[in-house]
């Protein structure tokens, strides 16, 4: 019983750790699309370019 209570409390305490917003990658946010770290070749190594993270039909009309 103690283990179950400990597991529940632990999961509740850790559930809020590291949350920075609604996106997983910074380059998904519109404000960051023109930043150098979201433009090739900087982002290609990690695959975090805006063109890789957002569907083309959303990204293309706003392309910087």
Shape: elongated
- How many distinct domains? 1
Order of helices and strands: HHH
Low-confidence stretches: none
Strand content: under 5%
Please report the distance between the alpha carbons of the first and last residues: 57 Å
| Rg from Cα | 18 Å
Share of residues in helices: 25-40%
SS summary, helix count: 3
Q: State the secondary-structure class.
A: mainly alpha
Describe the biggest sheet? none
Oligomer: single chain
> Would you tell me the overall average pLDDT?
81
The strand count comes to: 0
Labels describing this entry:
64 residues; mainly alpha; 33% helix
What does this structure look like?
With 64 residues, the protein is mainly alpha-helical. It has one domain. 33% of the residues lie in helices and 0% in strands.
Summarize the helices and strands and which ones pair or pack.
Layout: H1 2-14, H2 50-53, H3 56-59
């Amino acid at each position: 019983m103690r283990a179950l209570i400990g597991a529940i409390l632990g999961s509740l305490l850790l559930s809020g750790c590291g949350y920075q917003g609604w996106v997983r990658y910074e380059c998904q946010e519109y404000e960051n699309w023109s930043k150098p770290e979201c433009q090739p070749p900087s982002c290609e190594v990690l695959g975090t370019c805006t063109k890789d993270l957002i569907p083309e039909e959303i990204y293309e009309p706003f392309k910087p």
